[in-house]
């Protein structure tokens, strides 16, 4: 295995500061950084898919470099592992490795593993350090950065969890070569989200370069590093989501509602696809409210379509539920504050903002039109 | 109901500072303080026993004072509720009340409810504020103060949890009048622990006044307030248990092992009883190592006995397991660091200290003698 020098994105969170390493085949450099954390023993959590593809090589590299890794904790692949039951088993399996306070949990996998293992690390022995090794594009550009961890409840997605910052993130972009095309596309929805939030330039660059990002050229590293930097900037301003961090939820209020309606069935809809529809909807809703040009909403939708992402309620296989069902699913979202609806809307590409106290009737009317369009 | 002025013990933890109110019939004052927190809605968690004894009156008082309380979340009484399953149900039940971030969880009950509901508050919506209303002596003097929350794992007690400080603690000592004698005694083990840690004077005062503490005189309020102050001082020095806070574990390394061996069966051993045996053992072990006078160990044991608490392995109904079983149970304790044993030992009454790197063989020999004594 060749090892190259990674791009380094610092996340300056004071006592909880950490670095994100981004690049192709950077495991060697990653292991050096892990050794600097001064751990005695490592509990590695991964899922069945990642385990068969990557775990052996990674554990061997760690062991060859003198890091004591316990037998890996392997959970079933898929969103259904973000459950109370799998959390309980993961915590018990970590405890069974006899890691102690001050030791390390490594989350090797996509967003599900990162959220689950990160949450387990937050609560086993009332908090252990952990390192994210994200293996999906979605996890590399979004869920592994910022310290949000958690599981789903029957009441909604990510409603149970903790803010627990990793000690290090190792985003090896070569690992994405083994990712199914659909997963890559889904992660890409979060990449262009950063352009839509506050960088028209990055969105335009994505329109030009998306094929190289998918193909694994240096543009992929650039896109991942830019996304991490963009997210880190927001997280540093608002670690515990009392304000600005909500911007990162662009496309997610609609998106989470859809995921809830399909009961997190990945066969029908994965998170990034729900976000893609949510992004397109956020822009169409903004245009409908006269906040942004219809042209911008059209451009967002066109780009999402060109990479093969869904953009409409009608694109949800098996249907997206009634307007009432979607509204109800939205009001149990964490972003609800004192009964009013909060949305992230846009005045144009790269000009998103937090809109409080939105009129529920306006949302309902918009959804009705979406259904009839 | 008459309402009196409480004693106030401040816990100065910076952004997480809070007050502990201690006194007889102080609910009225407590509600005033809750209102000052500016909450919209309250989810109250309690257990079946406390629910039938106290919940109705407390909910009515809150409601009469304009605090919106959802239907209470009621869990089974007893240590077995500190489980993954009851935690999951508690989180879901709290979510079902549709409380939002910024709202409040109230933990009304003993140590189990406080640990469980506090942990649920720590993780529902990635952290909600909560108020402790401890209804047992144990909870008033120990578990409700300091922010440790959590549940048990098959690997050991409190191995899964969070540091999550309450926003307020309301310790109504009149509520202890309804407590079974055994529970009062068990809580009292934690009271005298504070004397044994660093205040010979408080231990002597307890020897003189324990009957008034049990009877519910003003000495009870004094003992609870002193205990809270003593614990708060340690917690403020070391919120996340990286050092001094371990002193609070005096009697707990042996105690937790015994609880584990009886599988947390309260019929055989409640936490305070395990601590009582652990306290006596910590002093006998200290005496055996030549650290403290045998007279001190004798005096500790005599006082524990005089209030009716157990002090010997032989006092555990159904047996305390073999020496090997006890040792094994101890090494999975959170206080194990890099494979060596850490104990809280004493150079005398009120002169406890943290002893690192204890020789396991010495502990084994001590336990063997204990069995044969």
Description:
The structure is a homodimer of 373-residue chains. The first copy, chain A, is of the alpha/beta class. Chain A folds into two domains: 7-178, Rossmann fold, CATH 3.40.50; 181-372, Dehydroquinate synthase-like, alpha domain (Up-down Bundle), CATH 1.20.1090.10. Helix content of chain A is 47%, strand content 17%. Chain A has 13 helices and eleven strands. Chain A has helices spanning 27-36, 48-64, 84-96, 111-123, 137-143, 181-198, 200-215, 218-237, 252-261, 271-288, 294-306, 323-331, 360-372; strands spanning 7-11, 18-23, 42-47, 73-75, 104-109, 129-134, 148-153, 156-163, 168-172, 341-346, 352-358. A seven-stranded mixed beta sheet of chain A has the order 1-2-9-6-5-3-4, sandwiched between helices. In chain A, strands 7-8 form a two-stranded antiparallel ribbon. In chain A, strand 5 (104-109), helix 4 and strand 6 (129-134) form a beta-alpha-beta unit. Chain A is globular. Chain A starts with 6 loop residues before the first strand and ends with a helix. The model of chain A has no long low-confidence stretch (mean pLDDT 93).
Q: Note poorly predicted spans of chain A.
A: none
Largest sheet of chain A: 7 strands, mixed
> Biggest interface between protein chains, with counts per chain?
A-B, 39 and 39 residues
Question: In DSSP terms, counting alpha (H) and pi (I) runs of 4 or more, how many helices of chain A?
Answer: 13
Strand content of chain A: 15-25%
Number of extended strands of chain A: 11
CATH fold topology of the largest domain in chain A: Dehydroquinate synthase-like, alpha domain
Q: Architecture of the largest domain in chain A, according to CATH?
A: Up-down Bundle
* Shape estimate of chain A: globular
Distance, first to last CA of chain A: 52 Å
Order of secondary-structure elements of chain A: EEHEHEHEHEHEEEHHHHHHHEEH
Count of discrete domains of chain A: 2
CATH superfamily of the largest domain in chain A: Dehydroquinate synthase-like - alpha domain
Q: Widest sheet of chain A: strand order?
A: 1-2-9-6-5-3-4
The computed structural class of chain A is alpha/beta
Overall mean pLDDT of chain A stands at 93
Helical residue percent band of chain A: 40-55%
EC number (chains A, B): 4.2.3.4
Pathway (chains A, B): Metabolic intermediate biosynthesis; chorismate biosynthesis; chorismate from D-erythrose 4-phosphate and phosphoenolpyruvate: step 2/7
Cofactor (chains A, B): NAD(+); Co(2+); Zn(2+)
Binding site for NAD(+) (chains A, B): 111-115, 135-136, 148, 157
């Amino acid at each position: 295995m060749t090892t190259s020098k990674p791009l380094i994105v610092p996340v300056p969170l004071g006592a909880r500061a950490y670095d994100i390493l981004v690049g192709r085949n950077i495991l060697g450099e990653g292991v050096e950084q892990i050794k600097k954390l001064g751990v005695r023993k490592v509990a590695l959590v991964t899922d069945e898919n990642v385990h068969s593809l990557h775990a052996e090589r990674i554990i061997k590299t760690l062991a060859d470099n003198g890091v004591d890794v316990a037998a890996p904790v392997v959970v079933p692949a898929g969103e259904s592992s973000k459950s109370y039951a799998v959390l309980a088993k993961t915590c018990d399996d970590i405890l069974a490795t006899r890691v102690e306070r001050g030791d390390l949990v490594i989350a090797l996998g996509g967003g599900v593993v990162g959220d689950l293992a990160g949450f387990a690390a937050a609560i086993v022995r009332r908090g252990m350090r952990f390192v994210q090794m994200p293996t999906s594009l979605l996890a590399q550009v979004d869920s592994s950065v910022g310290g949000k961890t958690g599981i789903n409840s029957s009441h909604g997605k990510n409603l149970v969890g903790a803010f627990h910052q990793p000690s290090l993130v190792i985003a090896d972009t070569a690992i994405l070569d083994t990712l199914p095309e659909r997963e890559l596309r889904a992660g890409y929805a979060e990449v262009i989200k950063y352009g839509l939030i506050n960088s028209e330039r990055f969105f335009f660059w994505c329109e030009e370069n998306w094929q190289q990002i998918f193909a694994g050229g240096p543009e992929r590293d650039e896109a991942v590093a830019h996304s991490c930097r963009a997210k880190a900037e927001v997280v540093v301003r608002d670690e515990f989501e009392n304000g600005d961090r909500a911007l990162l939820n662009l496309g997610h209020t609609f998106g989470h509602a859809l995921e809830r309606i399909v009961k997190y069935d990945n066969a029908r809809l994965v998170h990034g696809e729900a976000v893609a529809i949510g992004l397109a909807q956020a822009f169409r809703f903004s245009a409908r409210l006269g906040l942004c040009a219809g042209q911008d909403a059209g451009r967002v939708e066109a780009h999402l379509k060109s990479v093969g992402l869904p953009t409409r309620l009608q694109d949800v296989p098996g249907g997206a539920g009634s307007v009432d069902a979607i509204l109800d699913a939205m009001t149990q979202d964490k972003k609800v504050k004192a009964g009013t609806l909060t949305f992230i809307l846009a005045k144009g590409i790269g000009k998103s903002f937090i809109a409080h106290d939105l009129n529920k009737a306006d949302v309902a009317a918009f959804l009705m039109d979406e259904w009839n369009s």
